[in-house]
Design goal:
By secondary structure, this protein is mainly α. The chain has 10 helices and no strands. The chain is elongated, with a radius of gyration of 21 Å. Residues 9-14 and 122-132 have low confidence and may be disordered.
Amino acid sequence: MTASEENQTTRRRAPGMSPEQRREMIIQSAIPLIAEYGAAVTTAKIARAAGIGEGTIFRVFADKDELLQACVAEALSPEHAVRELDAIDVSQPLSDRLAEAAEALQAHMSRMGAIVGSLGHRGGKHPGTVRGAGRDESTIRIRAALAELLEPDRAALRRSPEQVAALFFGLLFAQPRTEGEPDLTPQELVEVFLHGALSGCAK
């Protein structure tokens, strides 16, 4: 058997998956390609990246547009970000916890921006329900995960963990860009958030 024939046999004999598992696998394969090529990405290219035949895509998606919309929904979903926040070790100092949280949420925002921007999603609208979480519920879930990270330091906080989490979330998602100045690193952002804008030597 030639290598080409062996590859075709392997493709035909891909492990059995439920329709939902196959949808998820295709979406995860498609997202990096959509970020790179936008709506111009072909289903043939997505199929190659997923290691499946192109026809398999249309067994779980009605058409390419439905696949693209599913990828937008996945990019906007809070699931991955919440899992990463939940995995942060709460025994670490608060500044380290928040720096990890900032990195996770900035990656989440970059992923959203890459997909929505590459597709020119009209108005940046949230495409309805995403795994049971619309825009408002997504925000609530991420804030709740942040509040859990703050909970061990409740006694030292000036406000409740929930309110501090909302402030930190707002800072991350609305961080202003200053022309000619580099963006703050997660560690720098956390330092300013926790200790204010004054330097240690300021009176």
